[in-house]
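Most newcomers find our protein records easier to grasp once they have seen one. There is nothing in a record beyond a sequence line and a structure line. Getting from the letters to the tokens is the skill we practise here. An example says more than a description, so a record of this kind follows:
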Amino acid sequence: MTELAAQPEDWTEPGAHPVVPGVHRIPLPLPLSGLRAVNVYVLDDPEGPTLVDSGWAGGTGRETLTTRLRELGLAPADISRIVVTHAHHDHYTQALALRLDHPVQVLLGRGEAPSVAAMRSRGEVAAPQEGLLRRAGARELAVAMGMHQKAEDAADDAPWGEPDRWLDDGEIVRAGGRDLEVRATPGHTRGHIVLRDAALGALFSGDHVLPHITPSIGYERAPEPAPLRSYLDSLRLVRDLPDTLQLPAHGPVTPSVHTRVDELLEHHAQRLAAALDQVRAGADTAYGVASKLPWTRRQKRIDELETEHAALAVLEIAAHLDVLVTAGHLVADETDGVRRYALA
């Protein structure tokens, strides 16, 4: 495994930080209350650098990217391609904005096609989360989330569109003499991909494996029916690959992706057990279960969370409960549009 270059103590520290030979990490600021930055990786290539992820279009992200590229003797016009791990604002939209100004090629996992199509009609078609929350028994939260999403859609002027090329599982992307193996890792989104550089001993893990936080599950415009099952399968897929450096989209670079995968699998095992215990205690909806569990590192109640975070919590528990149904621990039925659970 290639030796990791010394990293700043604060991973969000501005700069173009060397990671491994031929790779620099640029943290770009985000207009979010929770996540402060997203890592964009710059891969050297005599034909023009390749970026892994791109940041959020608008705000200071473009200016920051331009400044950091200049430190490397580059400009946005030099970028040859951008490989995007998934089609969330903070990864995809700046790639599309850059493409409007320069002939850069944008690549994205094929599984993101439904969400990209849905995002192009945002503001015209309601996001699915409001309906999913009603199904989870969270009627008041559903109303609040619907209003939140409508306001976000009205303020959203980020560009959306299809990539220049869809990527399939197992495909190889050539970048500066290195081979980046595309592995489909659905869960966080249905078309999420990671990029594995076997020769370098590094995995560009996007939001699939993050060092300090657990990624949201299935929070997108066209969510799949069983996002947690897909996510757990994708974690096991990465665990079965040889261990590598972890180059995540949020957080510091770490020496072992396997270590964090094991922690994430254990976290979800504990969450599945806790959800099952709450059904045993009498909770019968995803909202009922989520209301009994602590959230965030500060162990908050769900009614102490912001609307979007509360919605994510309820939908995550719904995904856990459905995994328990598939495993035969619970049964579920739907009455008056609400999905209810009981012990099998």
Remarks:
- The CA atoms of residues 235 and 310 lie 25 Å apart.
- Residues 17-122+162-253 form a domain with the Metallo-beta-lactamase; Chain A fold (CATH 3.60.15.10).
